[in-house]
Write a structure and sequence with these properties.
Elements: E1 30-31, E2 34-35, E3 44-46, E4 51-58, E5 62-64, E6 67-81, E7 86-98, E8 101-103, E9 106-114, E10 119-121, E11 124-126, E12 129-131, E13 136-138, E14 141-143, H1 147-151, H2 159-164, E15 169-171
Parallel strand pairs: 3-5, 4-6, 5-6, 6-7, 7-8, 7-9, 8-10, 9-11, 9-12, 10-13, 11-14
Antiparallel strand pairs: 1-2, 14-15
Length: 179
């Protein structure tokens, strides 16, 4: 009856609105309620589902979030033990970062860092050591001079030169000097 006549004009197209950019954050892992940093490794990766038995040798960085039994030697690389990593091996690298568990000797020529979720059971030999609050260490620690200062030391063996040289210091986990 009372109908409005339909308009024969085509409907105007709706203005195009570009979709909002989707922000994707990298996943954050938690260990016992603590948030661990997400590391983007530049070298090899041992994921949490892998178990490696044997020797690992190389020159690049290695991120381990799985289990390794044997030995790890990276002449120029960094070994990072992730929060789920379990290492039963001697570790020898330029730099060692521990966020998981290591049972064995750790030698970091430049430095060793133990995060708050990290645990080391074995001797540590390095020129620099960083320990976060909450880290567990059951180790003998030996801090050596950096390689650059050892090579620049004078070749003379005068009494003054020998009294100025500081021997490596051994520390117990409680922080007491063992010398």
């Amino acid at each position: 009856m009372w109908r409005k006549p339909e308009d024969s004009k085509p409907a105007s197209p709706a203005p195009e609105i570009p979709p909002a950019p989707v922000r994707v954050d990298p996943p954050v892992r938690t260990v016992a309620g603590l948030t661990a940093e997400v590391v983007q490794p530049s070298g090899g990766v041992v994921t949490s589902t892998l178990l490696i038995k044997g020797d690992i040798q190389g020159r690049e960085d290695l991120y381990i979030d799985g289990e390794v039994q044997g030995s790890i030697r990276l002449s120029e690389g960094r070994v990072t033990v992730g929060p789920h990593g379990k290492i039963s091996a001697d570790v020898d690298a330029r730099e060692v970062i521990v966020r998981g568990k290591v049972k064995g000797a750790v030698k970091g020529r430049d430095r060793v860092e133990v995060g708050r979720t990290g645990e080391i059971r074995g001797d540590i030999l390095t020129s620099r050591l960083a320990i976060e609050e909450g880290a567990q260490m059951h180790s003998k620690v030996e801090i050596t001079r950096a390689a650059a200062s050892q090579t620049s030391r004078p070749a003379e063996t005068s009494p003054a030169a020998t009294t100025l040289a500081t021997p490596p210091m051994a520390l117990k986990a409680s922080g007491e000097s063992a010398n």
